[in-house]
Amino acid sequence: MNNKKERDEIVNRLSSFLFEEGELEVYSAINIKKNVFKVTDTNGEKYIIKRHLRKKIVDQQWQFFDNFSNNPVIPFIAFPNSQKIIKKNNQIWTIAPYIKGEHLNYRFKHDRGSAVATLKKFHAQAENIYIEQPLIKNNVIIRWYKRLEEFKKTENIFAKYGLKNLHKDIVQTTVKQFYRLSDYSWDQCDYSGRKKGRWIHGDVASHNFIKNNADEVFMIDFDLLECTSQIYDYIQLGQRFLPYINWNLEELFSYQMVEEKEHKLWLAAINVPSDLMRETLHSVSEKPGEVGRHLKQMEKQWERRKLFSNYTNKVIQ
Q1: H or E element at residue 94
Q2: For the chain, does the N or the C end have fewer beta carbons within 10 angstroms?
Q3: Where are the domains of the chain?
């Protein structure tokens, strides 16, 4: 009962804030995940309202959306009073159209194909787009190295579940893959992407693709939007597909994510278990009660993944 009362109070405060600052008259609001609300106005129109902590990230998205023809992107829109953002207590709020549909599911081949096709459509339009002061990040190797250093700190958690050797194996494999990646110029890769005004989504998880009743697929949540080489989206997408295609290299190639001349670089990066480290760190910080189950599932996948990595490393030599 107390939880319901607390939720009602949050919704009431949000409704008042949206009307006072954005002139949005709220009929109902549902908290669908952390910092994200589905809102219906008094005319029956539905929107997604999101709270952000970093204005620079929101500003970059707005500049990008202003230069991008919408499909297949679900962009921010202005509030009824024409404000692009509204603010309270150093928090920034945005509004976007609500799309009725289902998230893609990478278990299904059709959905995997839809994700690739939609991402390629996005990438084809997301070039020659130049904005003021784009957010420049470290190259992917530096980011992954920092992630590895954080992952090393989880050794005691793995040990708690009798998986200390798994932790050691992941760390050693990552270091070995870093040596292989040193054969490629990642700074040049980033520079080339920025010079051509190319952008990536940055988080190609299945829940960021929405399929409506007409089988049209849209992309949402551009918080990790970045001007860089578009191969990074395909590295991440390849990593996400592999558990669902039985670690089959030929099937991975069948999606034609990258050109043949990029296969070596792409596979070398896919073989870095950056995704496993990311998911573990997320589980530890956001879902500590589920860490044990997460690690046991990882243990089951790891041997298959090592076989795939060993095989592909020979292929790309």
Answers
A1: strand 91-97
A2: N
A3: 2-98, 109-315
Angle between helices 140-152 and 274-286 (to 10 degrees): 50
Total residues belonging to the chain: 317
Between 3.90.1200.10, 3.30.420.200, 3.40.50.11270, 3.40.50.720, what CATH number should domain 109-315 receive?
Answer: 3.90.1200.10
Nearest to residue 118, comparing CAs of 210, 217, 255?
217
User: Is residue 1 over pLDDT 60?
Assistant: no
Residue whose pair of structure tokens reads 């784009």 in the numeric block = 134
Would you say residue 2 has pLDDT above 80? no
- C-alpha distances out from residue 174 to 109, 113, 117, 168, 205, Å: 29, 29, 30, 10, 22
CB atoms under 10 Å from CB of 95, counted, come to 23
Name the helix (H) or strand (E) containing 114: helix 109-125
132 token code pair: 């003021």
Q: What is the pTM of this model?
A: 0.94
Cβ-contact 272, 305 below 8 angstroms: no
d(CA 277, CA 128): 33
Alpha carbon distance 11, 18 (integer Å): 10
